[in-house]
Q: What sequence folds into this?
């Protein structure tokens, strides 16, 4: 697979064209940002871990019927993926209160929900990724009514599968963000990444944070936390 021109550079990844118009190469960086890019840093080795972890989780999800963009891991930091138009929604599922949910609604972090919640933000940097509901997303023509139903169905199924897998690893899946893409044929598939950058992962016994909150909140031990969840996943998958 020939790597061609850079198509896009994001906060944590670069995306390259290939000689196949339907395939792209994603390259994971060690760069980390938080608070809409206001906080910047480097998490040494993060790109290697997020690449591998995201690929393992997407392969597991494919095996249980969730279509994903994953094609093949090319190197420590590079993966071949299907080209999609990203649906400009951040889809967030929560099993426990944390982060912006705790802040917005005045709920202590770690309070369990009887059933998972779903919320959407409009991926739009100038607007600051505002929250919106599914009717807004349809009104803005970000998705069709049928597409948002598919997105919701996949998101809750992804939660069910990931929650069970992380539980086997002694890790509580508190919440996570996923993004979907639309293929040329109209199919909705899981895209972007699933990693400690995009999930809250707490040690099931101690409650220790094993994710990007260690970076956001200057808790230290960021690299060790990423390595720890990767190690636990590799022991189970
Ligand atoms: N998240 C993400 N990218 C974002 C915003 C959130 O990956 O731009 C993830 C975050 O890591 C967490 C979940 O989505 O696992 C819920 O995040 P929340 O809304 O609580 O926002 P935060 O507290 O991270 O600002």
A:
């Amino acid at each position: 697979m020939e790597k061609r021109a850079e198509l896009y550079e994001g906060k944590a990844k670069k995306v390259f064209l290939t000689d196949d118009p339907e395939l792209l190469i994603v390259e994971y960086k060690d760069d980390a940002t938080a608070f809409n890019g206001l906080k910047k840093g480097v998490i040494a080795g993060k790109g290697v871990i997020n690449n591998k972890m995201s690929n393992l989780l997407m392969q597991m999800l494919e095996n249980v019927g969730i279509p994903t963009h994953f094609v093949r891991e090319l190197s420590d930091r590079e993966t071949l993926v299907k080209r999609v138009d990203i649906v400009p929604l951040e889809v967030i599922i929560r099993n426990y209160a944390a982060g912006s949910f705790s802040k917005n609604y005045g709920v202590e972090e770690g309070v369990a929900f009887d059933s998972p919640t779903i919320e959407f933000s409009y991926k739009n940097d100038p607007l600051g990724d505002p929250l919106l509901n599914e009717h807004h997303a349809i009104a803005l023509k970000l998705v069709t009514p049928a597409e948002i139903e598919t997105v919701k169905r996949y998101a809750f199924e992804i939660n069910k599968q990931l929650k069970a897998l992380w539980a086997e690893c002694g890790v509580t899946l508190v919440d996570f963000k996923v993004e979907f893409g639309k293929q040329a044929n109209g199919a909705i598939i899981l895209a972007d990444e699933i990693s400690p950058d995009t999930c809250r992962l707490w040690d099931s016994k101690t409650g220790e944070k094993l994710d990007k909150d260690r970076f956001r909140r200057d808790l230290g031990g960021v690299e060790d936390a990423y390595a720890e969840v990767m190690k636990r996943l590799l022991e189970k998958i």
Q: What stands out?
A: DSSP finds six helices and 14 strands in the chain. The mean pLDDT is 98. The two ends are 28 Å apart (CA to CA).
